[in-house]
Specification:
The chain has 237 residues and is of the alpha+beta class. It has a single domain, classed as Ribosomal Protein S5, domain 2 (2-Layer Sandwich), CATH 3.30.230.70. It is built from five helices and nine strands. Strands 1-2-3-5-4 form a five-stranded mixed β-sheet. The chain has a four-stranded antiparallel β-sheet with strand order 7-6-8-9, with helices on both faces. β8 and β9 (197-204) form a beta hairpin. The chain is globular and about 55 Å long. The protein starts with 13 loop residues before the first strand and ends with a helix. The model has no long low-confidence stretch (mean pLDDT 96).
Length: 237
Amino acid sequence: MRPSKRAPDELRAVSFERGVMRHAEGSCLVKFGDTHVLVAATLEERLPPWLKGQGRGWVTAEYSMLPRATHDRTRRESTTGRPSGRTQEIQRLIGRSLRSVTDLVGLGEKQITIDCDVLQADGGTRTAAITGAWIALYDCLAWMRARSMVKEIPLKTHVAAVSCGIYNGTPVLDLDYAEDSVAETDANFVMTGDGGIVEIQGTAEKTPFSQDELLALLALARGGVERLVALQKAAVA
């Protein structure tokens, strides 16, 4: 029995609230159970210097966790002068995930920066951030289209992410903190709306996992991402 009493293939309650920030070109408050992430998409005219004159744009991301998103206060990284290795890894993952489904030539020589701020953490903050970031990016691109800055929304498909793991010997979907903190195996899957795999991050926390267990986790992730993409489609319909 999972601590949440969910079935092994059951997601937490997932919701998307769009347009929650007045000044951002796109924004979304995404909730995976008790994990809540505020995502804002900002359109910028500037580009990384190495991209100038190439006729294509860029999508990048920043990630942070509010001090009391967790049980104990986490020191703001701005006070340390540099982001942690974990933060850098997550924001690069978010950027890669979004660029994998964005037509950067169709975007033109512009940059969209996605800010993901964790308001409350209960496991799966990076997967919630990626899934909600697609909504914010979509709304930013729709804002551009409404102003004739792009002819069509330059998105090739959806992208979403979900965690899976082996908890008490059983493969389970969408780990919350109670499971994630003691799981034998912890993995994150980023997948597109048409079934493509963007990235898999998997770690054996205790006992190494087998190929069969990896395939079981992949099957769970595929089903979970399909449901998340369906919720994304309903949100922007």
